[in-house]
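Batch job 17 of 40 flagged for manual review because the log was empty.
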Amino acid sequence: MEVLQTTWDSIPEPIKDQLSTNFKNWTKSADNECDSAKPADTQVQTDINRYTCRIKLVKAETKELEGYKI
């Protein structure tokens, strides 16, 4: 999440204004997506699945945002 926050912070304001989200909204949306996944057989595995989901989303979003950096 820190890498994503740093990447987001490095994007110029005019470009941020054109994007349809902000860091806080994206984080909330990602949490909702990962929390709504089907629970696993154990709580530990469910937690691991949520963290894995968040990691995948953060990596994808960071890669996308890298394209907006100047």
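Reviewer: the log was empty due to a logging misconfiguration, but the result itself is present. Residues 42-69 form one domain. Unflagging and moving on to job 18.
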